[in-house]
Each structure stands twice: as C-alpha cells, then as structure tokens.
Design goal:
single chain, 222 residues, mainly alpha, Dna Topoisomerase Vi A Subunit, Chain: A, domain 2, 2 domains, two-stranded parallel ribbon
Length: 222
C-alpha cells in the first residue's frame, strides 16, 4: 500500500529491515543527481533501535550529501497518544535501551500498530510538504504526451511495416525463381549445411527503390 502511494509521486521506497548498510546509502547517492536536494522520510518503530536507526541514517546521509533533509514521519511519540496505540516494554537487551528509557520511558510501539490508512495519510502528507505540485503536474503531462505519442507512432509503424512487408513479399514471390531456391536449399540439407538462399542484387535494388517511393509518397499508408 505504501509503495503505491509513493509511486504516484515517483518517490523511491527503500525497505532496510534494520540498520541500512553502507551499500544502501552508497546506492542512494548514485541515484540522486548532483546538486539536487535529497529528502528522506523515515518510517520505523518507536523503540530503542527504531529511534537510533533514524539517527544512524541522518549521520550517514549528511556525510554523503551536502543538501539533505530528513524527517521521521512515523512512528512518533505523539502518535502513540493521539491514536491510542498499545505499548509494549522496550527490550532490555537492546544496547540503546538505557538511553531510550531516560528520554521516553519504558514503553515501545511497533510501526505496524498504526492503522494502515493513518500510515498512508501520514506518508502522503509528508510527501506533499516537499513536492512542487506544479512541477510534478507538468512532468506528468510531458510523460503523458510522450507515452501517447509513442503509442500512436508504434501503431502507425506497425501498420506501415505490414504494408511494406507485403509489398516486398509480393515482389520476391513474383521475381525469385522459387524452384531454384528450393532445390538449392534441398541440396544444402543433403550435405548437412545450412541453406544459404540469396536475393539477387538487382532485385534487392528494385525492391528498395519501390519501398522508398512508397514511403516518400505516403502510399504505404493507404
């Protein structure tokens, strides 16, 4: 569901399943054009690791990019109160447990506790805050124009190719010595060779000339 929401705005969705590796950050740096601003919207659990992962991403991203904005969209501490999310005890075995408890107390909530529709709304609102809708709409329109034009050209080329092919086949069937060609193919097969059938040069020139004339006169569209 989240992927469909991000795809509308052509935003990349990266699932890290824990701390993102340096490879993830490096791949991200290769996808962002030089001089562009990078916006990272983070979704994670409200627990010792979830909070620290955001810190980790922030540090790594700021080391790799000169123009980067980071925001933790969910799960935030205020979301727990606002939506009445059920807390669970934070894991004592987490190395970041004591620091987390000092700041937030011994309660943790998983991102999955947030209703899906609420999560989608939060993601959508966050994306819109950083999106130039005019530019996005113009970009979508240009993509639409290119896609529509390409489809029309492909249809026209397919139809024209069929007509040109039929014209070429007509000449080949009428002007080639079929019996001689078949005999040559049969002889090659008898000696375990691949048949090497050919079209005489003068016939090739005549067919190319007629096809070119059809294209220049537009008769291939009839």
């Amino acid at each position: 569901m989240t992927r469909r929401r991000t795809s509308v705005y052509r935003c990349a969705l990266q699932v890290t399943r824990g701390y993102p590796s340096l490879t993830v950050i490096r791949d991200l740096s290769q996808r962002v054009p030089e001089g562009s601003r990078l916006v990272i919207l983070y979704l994670g659990d409200f627990d010792p690791s979830g909070e620290d992962i955001f810190r980790h991403i922030s540090r790594e991203a700021r080391e790799k990019f000169t123009n980067v904005t980071l925001e933790k969209v969910a799960l935030r501490e205020e979301d727990i109160k606002r939506f009445g999310l059920p807390p669970v005890p934070a894991k004592r075995t987490d190395p970041r447990y004591k620091k987390f408890v000092r700041r937030h107390g011994n309660r943790a909530v998983e991102l999955d506790a947030l209703p899906p529709q609420v999560l989608l709304e939060k993601v959508g609102e966050a994306i819109l805050r950083f999106t130039d809708l005019d530019a996005q709409a113009r970009s979508n329109y240009e993509v639409f124009l290119f896609s529509s034009g390409s489809q029309l050209v492909d249809e026209a080329l397919g139809s024209l190719r069929t007509r040109l092919l039929n014209a070429a086949l007509t000449h080949l069937r009428e002007d080639l010595d079929a019996e001689a060609q078949v005999a040559a193919a049969k002889e090659a097969l008898r000696t375990y060779l691949k048949p090497q059938l050919t079209v005489p040069d003068d016939l090739q020139r005549r067919i190319r000339g007629e096809l070119a004339q059809m294209l220049s006169s537009g008769s291939g569209w009839d």
